[in-house]
Amino acid sequence: MCNSKNYSKSQLYLLVALRVVIGWHFLYEGIVKLANPNWSSVGFLLDSQGIFSGFFHSLASNPDVLSVVDTLNIAALTLIGLGLILGSFTRLATIGGIVLLAFYYLSHPPFVGLKYAMPMEGNYLVVSKNLIELMALCVLLVFPTGTILGLDRMNYLIRNKKK
Predict the structure, then answer these.
(1) Do 26 and 84 meet the contact criterion of CB atoms below 8 Å apart?
(2) How far apart are alpha carbons 32 and 81 in whole angstroms?
(3) Which of 81, 110, 127, 131 has the most Cβ atoms closer than 10 angstroms to its Cβ?
(4) Which H or E run contains 30?
(5) How many Cβ atoms sit within 10 Å of the Cβ of residue 122?
(6) Global pTM?
(7) pLDDT tens readout for residues 52-106
(8) Three-class secondary structure of residue 118 per DSSP
(9) Where are the domains of the chain?
(10) Mean pLDDT across the chain, nearest whole number?
(11) Do 41 and 100 meet the contact criterion of CB atoms below 8 Å apart?
């Protein structure tokens, strides 16, 4: 853990702001998927390429498994987003976000020679928005932003008061 005394308030608050905007992105994605009764990850999974494509295709091939994957994806996006925004269970939310983004990245790696049916927002080569957001969460993982501003701060203050 970092010692927050080694950083300026603006540095710490910018890290918190980064946590919140990433949280907003996760929460919004979860809510949009939840609000759309026709949303499914089937197209994304079937469009997967790369060395893990067989795994992602198998998730899409069984309707029962696909239903669980869709539900877990929506729940994970929403809970990770809430955790990051509220600063509650920030370490768990950050790790969850890293894992989820790693799955997205591995499903659709932006490597030379891979062509996807689903259009992407831009042109990527190795580094995509998923990888960038994943790395930003890795940075946040080493800074206790929940103890700076968030619900985790209450637990932090209670624990340190007892010492």
Answers:
(1) yes
(2) 13
(3) 81
(4) helix 9-35
(5) 8
(6) 0.86
(7) 999 999 999 999 999 999 999 999 999 999 999 999 999 999 999 999 999 999 9
(8) coil
(9) 9-162
(10) 89
(11) no
Amino acid at 73: N
Tens digits of residue pLDDT in 137-158 = 999 999 988 888 888 888 877 7
Question: Can you tell me the distance from the alpha carbon of 119 to that of 62, in angstroms, rounded to the nearest whole number?
Answer: 25
Q: What is the DSSP string of 121-132?
A: SS--BSB-HHHH
Reading the block at residue 57, the tokens are 């295709």
- CA 91, 96, 101, 107 torsion-angle sign: positive
Cα separation, 128 vs 122, whole angstroms: 9
The model's pLDDT over 9-60, given as tens digits with 9 standing for 90+, comes to: 899 999 999 999 999 999 999 999 999 999 999 999 998 888 899 999 999 9
What's the pLDDT score for residue 152? 85
Distance CA 115, CA 121 (A): 14
